[in-house]
Amino acid sequence: MFEITYAKNGESIVEVEITGTLAEIRELEKMAIDLSQNMEQSSTLQARTNFIPEFGDGWIKELILMSSEGDVKVLANPPDSLTIKGSPEKLEVFSGYCHFEDDDKYPTHHHCEWRDEHPCLAPVSVPLIISIAEEQ
Predict the structure, then answer these.
(1) Are the beta carbons of 60 and 16 closer than 8 angstroms?
(2) 3-class SS at 61?
(3) Cys-Cys crosslink for 20: which of 24, 42, 63, 75, Cβ 3.0 to 4.6 Å?
(4) E strand or H helix at 46
C-alpha cells in the first residue's frame, strides 16, 4: 500500500510526497489516464497510515483524483486527503509525472510543482513528489 506524507512550515503545507512500489505508482498513472479519457469522474485510493514518516510531519489517509475544469490542482487536507483534480486534458499531462520505466528502481522520483507556464498545474497547487519505493 502506498504512503502519502506532507511537510509543513508553520501552518502551511510546503510539500507532499506519494511513495509506492512501481506497480502502485502505475495504478495512480492508470487512474489519471482513465479520468483523462472520461472513463471515470473520480477515483479514491486508501494510503497506509500505520507508520512513522521518514519524510515530513505526518501522513495523509487517502488520495482522491477527480475530473473537474481547468488546470490540475494538488490540494492537501491532512490527515484526511490529498485531492488532485483537473480537466481531462490536464490530467493526461499530469499522468506523465506518474510514469516510470520498467527499469526505474528505488530510489527515484519526479517533482511536480507549479512554475510560470507549467503545462498542467494551477498556481494554488502544493508541490508534489512522486517516488518509487523499494520492493518489500
Answers:
(1) yes
(2) coil
(3) 24
(4) strand 42-46
For 17, 21, 32, 71, 105, the CA distances from 91, given in Å and listed in that order, are: 18, 21, 6, 8, 25
Cα of 99 vs its chain's centroid, Å: 12
Strands 108-112 and 42-46, bridge-based pairing: unpaired
CA gap 47, 39 in Å, rounded:
23
Q: Record the cell numbers describing residue 79, joined without a space.
A: 490527515
Interval 52-68: pLDDT, tens: 777 788 999 999 999 99
Q: How far apart are CA 129 and CA 39, in angstroms?
A: 26
Beta carbons of 3 and 55 less than 8 angstroms apart: no
Residues 71 and 17: beta-carbon distance below 8 Å: no
Query: 68, 94 in Cβ contact below 8 A?
Result: no
Tell me the residue length of the chain.
136
- SS3 percent helix, strand, coil of the chain, rounded to 5, is 20, 40, 45
Kindly report, residue by residue over 99-112, the tens digit of the pLDDT. 999 887 778 999 99
Non-local (6+) Cβ contacts of 39 within 8 A are none
